[in-house]
Specification:
The structure holds two protein chains of two kinds. Chain A is α/β, with parallel strands linked by helices. In chain A, α2 crosses α5 and α3 crosses α4. Chain A is built from six helices and 13 strands. Chain A has a single domain, classed as Rossmann fold (3-Layer(aba) Sandwich). By secondary structure, chain B is an alpha/beta fold. Chain B folds into two domains: 182 residues, HUPs (Rossmann fold), CATH 3.40.50; 119 residues, TPP-binding domain (Rossmann fold). Chain B contains nine helices and 18 strands. In chain B, the strands form four sheets. Chain B has a seven-stranded parallel sheet, sandwiched between helices. Chain B has a five-stranded parallel sheet with strand order 15-14-16-17-18. In chain B, β14, α5 and β15 form a beta-alpha-beta unit. The longest helix of chain B is centred in the C-terminal third of the chain and has 17 residues. Chain B is elongated and about 60 Å long. The chains are: A alpha/beta, B alpha/beta. At the A-B interface, α3, α4, β7, β8 and β9 of A face α3, α4, β7, β9 and β10 of B.
Chain lengths: 249, 323
């Protein structure tokens, strides 16, 4: 089985985002970069898929040389090799998907996993974009997943107020929701081995962005409101304020 | 020119986010000299007509039973056929679970691009400018889609559906040309917890954090939520601890929410939680630590023990709202 998992190199969730000098992207100084949290579920799903069937797991990432560090995290978890689509120019989601799709097009993927969203640009797009570009079915935000021997897929995805069961079949692109599995921690041995695992470099074809960022700003700072009081005695005043001042009840 | 708005129904009932999307489209349509055409899969003709009350001049009603349940392949193909027929270069849809799944496939099939999860739309020089939160709301970006075909998914609960003005949309039945291959990926059914509101759709949310000390105390949160008609949410810490399901998690690795009222109980306010809820219109915080960061974003705070304050607030609300 030829298993691919697409990962993203993103600022840690504790990052205090500041707007960079170009006014269109974040200031990267002092930012700690991590493997996108949702991609950990995707890597784990890929490893479990391989363990049940045999095959090879390739971690794919688009971006500058720094993303190799994130590819190595996937390798340390147990993936076999990396695929680095090199670019110093950031792209929109469409352009990133296009670079991945053209790279994977002739590699006969049986399954491609990714996270439901990257926690930087929060686009929730990759499964659908890749599916459409590679002419493959896509199942997004899978919270439960069963892939049967005949390649049929049964996934449960979270929807508003409940869940939806989706059927599909391999080869397919599947994006992982938190809760799909428990991602394994890389062991020391895995981290050592990851350093020796191969990472292939690929140059993407040129792309013109279709979504242009005009400016980035910080949301208006919410000023701290009032402390209504202490303890249960304050609830009367709170309810009054919510009704008369805030007018939300 | 036409703006197509893809609406969504479940069990025959049109979702509120769909009306919000129609109204949002209508609000920019004037400056673009465009009409709004809604697309409705399933439900009935009355529902299709009623979309006029929110600003749709016309509703294309797809009453093929096979499409009552969602299939991304079949929906994409249907929408592409409708967009072509209606001469629509712009498609808007709610950024719901369905919309988020459909929009990227649609963008590629239409040879356009998608601005996802938009919270504000405006027109500048004849072109749509969309504002969208990134980094879970820690920053905002203004974007333009530069391709000829443009797709915008709109965050639920942010745009106002406005007042219904009684107008009726012209309804046109449409049967898309579909093959079995378009249904390779399809929904076989949904299970909705009865009476349960989802945090992403709710107009009020009561959330609990580690201050609740254990899942056995969640009745405090549920009782307050029930008094307010609110959904229940949770911090990442309690979801990671297994006290609550992930569907309730509010924050950067959960859901980003913007209800009218957000009540945070026993939540200290880690940056990744604040990112997910600070765009709520009114925030109430109840925490025993007066220095907790949650008070920095709260409009109203009570410093105190959640085990005392939350039940007192529930009782006070019950008697207040009962009158």
């Amino acid at each position: 089985m030829n298993i691919f998992v697409c990962v993203s190199h993103v600022p840690d969730t504790t990052t205090k985002v500041q707007v960079g000098e170009d006014g269109k992207s974040i200031d990267p100084s002092g930012v700690t970069w991590i493997l996108n949290p949702y991609d950990e579920y995707a890597v784990e799903a890929a490893l479990q898929f391989k363990e049940a069937r045999e095959g090879e797991v390739t971690v794919v990432c688009f971006g500058p040389d720094a993303v190799k560090e994130t590819i190595r995290k996937g390798l340390a978890m147990g993936a076999d090799k990396g695929l680095h689509i090199k670019s110093d120019q950031p792209r929109d989601s469409f352009g990133t998907a296009k670079a991945i799709a053209e790279t994977l097009k002739d590699r006969e993927a049986d399954v491609i996993f990714c996270g439901r969203q990257s926690i930087d640009y929060d686009g929730w797009q990759m499964a659908g974009l890749l599916g459409e570009m590679l002419d493959l079915p896509s199942v997004s935000v899978a919270a439960k997943l069963e892939i049967k021997e005949d390649g049929s897929i049964e996934a449960v995805r979270d929807i508003e107020g409940g869940q939806e069961t989706i059927v599909s079949k391999l080869p397919a692109v599947i994006s992982a929701q938190k809760g799909l599995n428990e991602p394994r921690y890389p062991k020391l041995q895995g981290i050592m081995q990851a350093k020796r695992k191969p990472i292939e470099d690929v140059e993407p074809s040129p792309h013109e962005n279709r979504v242009e960022v005009l400016e980035m700003s910080k949301p208006p700072v919410k000023s701290a409101g009032k402390i209504v009081g202490e303890g249960p005695d304050a609830v009367k005043d709170l309810v009054k304020l919510l009704h008369e001042e805030a007018k939300v009840i | 020119m036409n703006i197509l708005v893809i609406t969504e129904q479940r069990d025959g009932k049109v979702k509120k986010a769909s009306y919000e999307a129609i109204r949002a489209a209508k609000n920019v349509a004037g400056e673009l000299n465009a009409d709004v055409t809604a697309v409705l899969f399933g439900a009935d003709e009355a529902a299709a007509k009623a979309m006029g009350g929110y600003g749709a001049a016309k509703t294309v009603h797809v009453a093929d039973e096979k499409l009552n349940l969602y299939s991304n392949g079949a929906y994409v193909k249907s929408v592409v056929q409708i967009a072509k027929k209606e001469g629509a270069d712009i498609v808007m849809l709610p950024a719901t679970a369905l919309g988020k799944d459909l929009a990227p496939r649609l963008a590629v099939r239409m040879e356009g691009a998608l601005a996802p999860d938009v919270t504000e739309l405006s027109v500048d020089g004849g072109d749509i400018v969309a504002l969208r939160p990134v980094y879970a709301g820690k920053a905002l970006i203004k974007v333009k889609v530069t391709s000829a075909k443009k797709i915008f998914s709109l965050r639920p609960n942010v745009f106002s559906a406005g007042e219904v003005d009684g107008a009726e949309a012209q309804v046109e039945a449409f049967s898309p040309q579909l093959d079995d291959a378009d249904f390779v990926t399809k929904s076989t059914g949904t299970s909705i917890a009865s009476g349960k509101l989802d945090v992403a759709e709710a107009t009020a949310i009561v959330s609990g954090g580690r201050g609740l000390q254990g899942p056995e105390n969640w009745n405090l949160i549920e009782d307050l939520a029930s008094a307010l008609g609110a959904a229940t949410g949770a911090s990442r810490a309690v979801v990671d601890a297994g006290w609550r399901p992930h569907a309730e998690q509010v924050g950067q690795t959960g859901k980003t929410v913007s209800p009218n009222l957000y009540v945070a109980c026993g939540i200290s306010g880690a940056i990744q939680h604040l990112a997910g809820m600070s765009s709520s219109k009114v925030i109430v915080a109840i925490n025993k630590d007066k220095d907790a960061p949650i008070f920095q974003v709260a409009d109203y705070g009570i410093v105190g023990d959640v085990f005392e304050v939350v039940p007192a607030l529930t009782e006070e609300l019950k008697s207040f709202l009962g009158n």
